[in-house]
Amino acid sequence: TANPEPDRDDVLNDSSGKLWAPAGAIVYQRRDEQHFVVRNGFEILLPPGSYTLAAERGPEYRPFSTAFEARAGLERRIEVAVGRWVDMNRLGWYSGDLHNHRRLQDMPLLLLAEDLNLAPTLTDWIWEDRPSSTPPQTSDAVRQVDATHVYSVLDKEVERLKAGPGAVDLLGLRSLIPFDGYLLYPPNDTFARQAHAQGAWVDAEKIVWRDVAALVALGHIDFAGVVNNHFNRQGVETETDTWGMIPKPRPEFNTPAGMPLWAMEVYYRFLNCGFRLAVSAGSASGVKSSPLGYNRVYVNLPGRFGYEEWFRALKQGRSFATNGPMLSLTVDGQGPGGVLRFQRKGSRPVKVHAEASSVNSMDRLEVLFKGKVIRTVTGAGKLAADFSADVAETGWFAARAFERPDRAVRFAQTSPVYTEFPGDRGIVAEDARFFIDWMDRETAFYKNLPGFREPAHRDAMLALFSAAREVYARLAALSLAAPGSADDRRRARDFDP
Hints:
By secondary structure, this protein is an alpha+beta fold. It is built from 8 helices and 29 strands. The protein has helices at residues 107-113, 189-197, 212-217, 259-272, 307-315, 429-447, 455-480, 486-494; strands spanning 8-14, 26-30, 33-38, 49-56, 64-70, 93-96, 118-120, 124-127, 130-131, 142-146, 149-152, 156-160, 166-171, 201-204, 223-227, 231-232, 235-236, 278-281, 296-300, 319-322, 326-331, 339-341, 348-357, 362-369, 372-378, 383-391, 395-403, 411-414, 417-420.
């Protein structure tokens, strides 16, 4: 018998590794991941033998684990303690998992068991060219569990991989968006426009799909999926080429420890082209080997928690994404999403403070400016960086943190704190050229790809990449113009990313 405690997820294994679950529990088994979710405590009848009981309630709680023997005729009571080590809500931070395939009827208990504040539920899932689920017929788009736990039910994922453009998640929809197409048509900007027309949001659940850079350039993406579902509790999925993701430019990116660095590098290149993208996270629980909320994005709210308020704050960049560490950053008192505007050119000192901590052992904390690491702090416990830095250009600060790697790779990344100087757009030519090459590669791919049912369908995909290439070409030109020159001012009037 496990004592009455808050809702949680548990693992009860015998010596052979078999999962035992009580009647009425929500049981989750995906490959090596196996657990059950209970409301309060539970009772179960076990055959004699050796067992291990583990309990979790999300990353803000210390996990519990114990081994015990079951004997014939013996009733045993186990006191389970999963106490908090941090309370992020009290600090103004509220968590969300933007990639969720769990059953609607299970969502209230799952949110409470994982202490996850918010979760869109992708009930309308398109896989390649067909629906993989049946969305509910309801106008009740957002459902409140209690004052700080909420989920939505009409969210849509359009997932067309391999030769397809990639996957986008449409979140906070007020009504269903139909899918009338196939693997190669229509381009994903079609669905992004329809979502934005409803006041909904578009998450690039991985920022390394074929079409993400085109969608970002044309203003169709709200959030950048850096802590994505290739990172799960059972390990890291390093295979990406066969799924249709962009090539990895360095061998280290093919390793578990290198996978987050790859996503981060692409994210930093977007920021260096002037796109202000909030970092996001998603677990794909229901499909992948993780509980709901394993990958989560924390959003800072200045006032009361609410579904719309949370998404608006995420769009503003008031976020960090994580599957383990809690992470904070301020620059001259501004947190993620903040902007430091300087009125005159010249070097300015700023005070930088970053902290990272976890219930697990830490490895390092890093602070970056425009994608370059400017401070590293190592150690196993709570890590802090407190220093002064000189800044003389338009750009951005961010922090990232890594736990000591084991089977899984646990890390966190903040959205940026931005700096602005007059006459300086802060665009990095090398990064603009990276995306030009990306557009050229995908254009060549789709020009020669069979499978388009009509010539107009191919033209629509090529038009997406062509329009985005023009954006990056203009950004590259802006980066080479002398700051404050007549040429720069003319281009700035014509274009604003």
